[in-house]
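quick one, three chains, predict together pls
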Amino acid sequence: MSEQAAALSQADTQLTVRAEPFDEAQDRPVEAPSEGGAVPIDAAQLKKTLEAALLTAQEPLSLAELKKLGDAPLENRHIEELLEQLAKEYSGSGVELNRVANGWRFRARPEMQPYLDRLNPQKPPRYSRAVMETLAIIAYRQPVTRGDIEEIRGVAVSSQILKTLEVRGWIETIGTRDTPGKPELFATTKQLLDDLNLRSLQELPSLEEIGTLLEQGGQTAA
Amino acid sequence: MSEQAAALSQADTQLTVRAEPFDEAQDRPVEAPSEGGAVPIDAAQLKKTLEAALLTAQEPLSLAELKKLGDAPLENRHIEELLEQLAKEYSGSGVELNRVANGWRFRARPEMQPYLDRLNPQKPPRYSRAVMETLAIIAYRQPVTRGDIEEIRGVAVSSQILKTLEVRGWIETIGTRDTPGKPELFATTKQLLDDLNLRSLQELPSLEEIGTLLEQGGQTAA
Amino acid sequence: MTQTDLQITPLARIHGEPVLEMPHDLYIPPDALEVVLETFQGPLDLLLYLIRRHNLDVLDIPMAQLTQQYMDYIEIMQRNRLELAAEYLLMAAVLIEIKSRMLLPRPPKASEEGVEDPRAELMRRLLEYEQMKLAAQKLNELPQAGRDFELVQVLIEHTVEQRLPNVAVEDLRQAWLALLARAKQNAHHKVRREELSVREQMTRLLRQLRHGEFEVFENLFDVSGGIPQLVVTFIAILELAKETLVEISQSETLGNIYVRASRSLIAS
């Protein structure tokens, strides 16, 4: 680390253009001199800075931004060369350096994702009680209108709830009831049966059975 | 990349213990077999996974969490060995792998900061003396009540100060003192240590080291 | 009153210029004083400043001198009508009290037992505060995440689409159970138990009739389903008729019976 620091402070003071460009990887003069552009002296140092910047950035960094990291004006191709070297250095690692639309950025290799998911096991999301009850009502009492659902639940049913179930492909409107306001009639879809792994609605627990369950709780059935 | 994927899926299926441990770096049998412990076969693969996890994590990762990345049960020392190897591999780079209070995490080397600041000129505000003094008192005298802090500082401590530190995640209430009014007891968090790149409170500058006016003035201590 | 202490931190900066000591001239711009006042963290901080600035011995504070200086300071503040925190006035009282106690002759008996120096408590507090003040400086010098170094955070691209909740049959059962339980509490919300198969057939029939055209009655039945199925379908049709969801018509006696969805049912 102190070595690092030393290298850095050296870089701070030495950033002038060296006449003979060095191949940093091999640390000897490059055979073919580059096309006369100014070569940043401490390419290794600059590469390290690019690396730190890219690893800490939350967004892709454009070449224009990356250029700010040099102490002297830099040409795009110099930066790009270094970025390609970096990308190569990371080729055996768990992350990769990619060029994307708005610049360059690191990302975890997609193959790593199953492992990384173990660290953030997203708890499977759950539907609210309101959603589940609405679904149950539609499943058991279809076709029903929103009014029917509200009557059974005893509370208003938000459009959001129905929307959630519709977007999921579990309910659909199959018409309207011929009463004032022409309320829409909701029914469950085949998709729901598929997702519940049922062949038909009759495979849902029968209401009789449910009633029994409830009575075990010491209450009288309605 | 597809090579990567192949390697990974191979690792998935191959995770049994190999009789003859391989030196991954050289890919040939190791001379001295390890002390009879189960050696995770694809150490290189695991290291890559650790690397990806640590580079992508938002928080330091504990050994317990890192263990989840292995396909087979792992011993702490195996993980630690790999982490140390990783840290060494990054020693020449712009970032470093540190162990802090909550586990292991990568950070950009502090020497990089002047460069990184060019990309992100807005710095977090420096805290006022009042905030820092309050933090120091909580850090060195914890657990303390607001009254204790006021006693030491000789002035009222505004709720705003405590709020600032709480919101930053640096202090928390860990209970109440059993005196009239049941004042809350404040202590510092692991987050504070993480943010200061420390493993434990003992790594804070010691009070002896800090000294006082007394010694600075060259006067004799009582 | 030596003024050689070079290590004093500036009292304040006014227009970028460090103010190292209280101005001696008669006129002190009030805003300057306000800045000065703000630089002190309280009476202990001010006392420490005075002690250091005048090279006083913390362990043997000349109370008369310190008190005088402190009072001068307070007076300037008050003369300029700056609002002084109560703590500053309280400290003034403490200092005067200590000073007066030190003027009192010590009771001979008590001196043998080593009566506590009236300044002891003040000294203890000054030392403790100073230690924390220095500790705060040290803490502030430690590299801080975000301020002095950046944390690495590489993107994980979550290619998986948004996860949807899983629902099991059991969840539906539980939901219905909850409804039933509630319905029982409110007796007027009667939940009838009904053959599910009828409702299922009702939905199936409505779907079949969606096109809005008349359908021959017989075509609504799936003969392969067996007799129970036929019965259930029949009941479903009656139920639909009852709920005015379908119209049933027969143009002549013994002629074909046609069924179609109510006009309103036909989704646009």
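The interface with chain A takes residues 1, 4-5, 8, 48-53, 55-57, 61, 65, 68-69, 92-96, 106, 108-109, 111-112, 115-116, 118-119 of chain B (CB under 8 Å).
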